[in-house]
Amino acid sequence: MRICVYGLGAIGGLFAARIARTGRTVSAVARGATLETARREGLALIEREGERERRSVVRVEASDRPGDLGPQDLVILTVKTTGLVEVAREIAPLLGPETVVLSAMNGLQWWFFHGMDASLGALRLETVDPGGLLTAAIDPKRVVGCVTHLSSSSPAPAVIRHGTGERLIVGEPGGGAAPRTREIVELLRAAGFEVEPSDRIQRDIWIKLWGNMTMNPVSAITGATADRILDDDLVRGYLSRCMVEAARIGERIGLPIAMSPDERHAITRKLGAFRTSMLQDAEAGRALELDALVAVVVEIGRRVGVDTPAIESLLGLSRLYARVRRLYP
Description:
By secondary structure, this protein is α/β, with parallel strands linked by helices. The protein has two domains: 3-199, NAD(P)-binding Rossmann-like Domain (Rossmann fold, 3-Layer(aba) Sandwich); 209-322, N-(1-d-carboxylethyl)-l-norvaline Dehydrogenase, domain 2. 44% of the residues lie in helices and 20% in strands. The protein contains 13 helices and twelve strands. The protein has helices at 10-21, 32-41, 84-90, 118-121, 133-137, 179-190, 201-222, 226-231, 233-252, 261-269, 277-284, 290-304, 309-324, and strands at residues 3-6, 26-29, 43-49, 52-58, 61-63, 72-77, 95-103, 143-149, 152-156, 159-162, 167-171, 194-197. Strands 5-2-1-6-7-8-11-12 form an eight-stranded mixed β-sheet. The chain has a four-stranded mixed β-sheet with strand order 4-3-10-9. Helix 7 crosses helix 11. The longest helix is centred in the middle third of the chain and has 22 residues, at 201-222.
């Protein structure tokens, strides 16, 4: 199997290093200092073993030009969603007739409604698929969805530090257990991940989005860790109102959530004083993934007739914050 990881950031680097360590040949699309370091020194993975950290180094063929790598059997897409338009313009050389794309990114993607109810399957989300560019470049039929429930960071170029968690959820957009999905599950299990097959991957994506949609932008605006956000009664109440609106959308599109906002808050609160990925992006001056996490929910609400005043105010405030800091177009 020819495997290419598109994006050697915190999550992509973890995928690449773990899979390469099993003896598979892995290539990667990378940029800048990450590309230079990976070529010169290899890809370093730091993991905890009890009270100690273990560092291993693997070699991957890396390039900033997909054409150098050629057609693949599996492309693992792990870029920030803000970079997907660029990916759509450059990915073609990696895609052969049978290439599978494992979509392991935050939020909702261009393929989200593929395989769902026929009335929804025709919906194209302008927010995450402007002008149909992504659908034209990466046919949803190629896609297998992946939800990540783990933490990883990249403290230096081509250096990956695994944090907590090993859980991945993998599934076909149309449901079922296709041979290609079973092969991906076994590949990722061999790489050390705890992989759970899903018969409705959109449901798993929607449930994760339900919490990320609110916590991420509020943390970016305020600079607060998750515990401080949830410990403020007024802010927590506002998050809950946003989540109630999103739950109504979920019911309308066939993805009901059997949990109350307070129940979800209690789960998040147990994770302690963590800094969300969007807060880290804001502090580092990186573009914020507001479209795939927040704007797309507003768009779906309008398409299916669900009012979203609380989510719209969240989008407006976070978008203005990001635009002032040149972190959003």
